[in-house]
Amino acid sequence: MPFASLLAASGAAPSIAVNFLSLLYVLVSAYVYISLIHQISARTSNPVGTDAPARIFGLPEAILAAVLILFLLLNIGASISRPSNDFSAPNLLGNFLLMIFVVLAIVTFLQLRRFDLASLGGFSGISFTRTLSTGAILLFFAYPLILWSDIITQRLFRSGSSKQNIVEFFSGSRTIDQRIMIIVFAAAVAPVIEEFLFRFFLYNVIKRYFGRLLGVILSALLFAAAHAHFPSFVPLFVLGSCFAIAYEWSGSILVAMTMHSLFNSVTLTALAFPEIFSP
Known about the structure:
The protein is mainly α. Helix content is 81%, strand content 0%. α1 crosses α5 (128-157) and α9 (233-250) packs antiparallel against α10.
C-alpha cells in the first residue's frame, strides 16, 4: 500500500470513531430527555404519594403573566429595531436593573397573595450537592441537542453567527471591568432572573391553564424570543425546553438555575480560552 494511502487509512479510523461517539452522545441525550418526559407523564397519571403544592396560580397570576408577556413582546420589538452595535455596558446595566425590578414586583405580588414561594420553587428538600450534580448531568445531556439544533439551523437558513449580542460584546471587550460585569451577569444574575420569570412564573401559569406540553413550548418560545437574536432562536428554544423539563422533573427551580449558570459559564470560558475549545 502506498505511504499516502496508509496515512489516509490511519486517519480515517479515528475520524469514524469520533463520529460514532458523537452520534452515540446525541442518541443517549435524546433518550435521557425522553425518559424524563415519560417519568413526568407517569407521575402525572399516578399522583399517589406526591407532595403537591397547597396552592396553584389562579386568575390574578394569569393577568399578571399576560402583562409580563406583553411587556416582553414590546421589549423584543424594541430590541429588534435597535442596531446590534448599540449594545453597550450602560444598556446591559439598564436591562439588569429593569429585570430585577420586574422580579421584585412579581415576588411582592405573590407574597401579598400569600403564596409559599419556597414550596412552589422547590427551594427546600434539595441539597446543594444534589442540585449541582443534577444540574451538571442534565446540562451534559442537553448539550448535543443544543449544538445539533444550532448546526441544523445554520445549514438550513444560513442565518449567520449564532453568537448573541452579549457574547459578541464579551469577545470584543477590552477592559477587565466590562468582562467582570458580563461574567457576574451571565453566571449569577441572568440565570436567577430568567429562570424565575420564564420557568417559575410563566411556565407554571401556562401549565395551570393549558397543560405541561404547551407550558414547556410557550415558555421556551418566549425565552428564545426575549434574547432578540434570530440566529440563536432555535438553540435557545431547545435550551429553554431542557430547563423546563429539568424543573418539572426535579421539582426545584434551583436545578434549572444551576443548568443555566453552568451553561453561561462554559460559554464564557470557551470565549476566554479559545485555544482550548476551538478543536
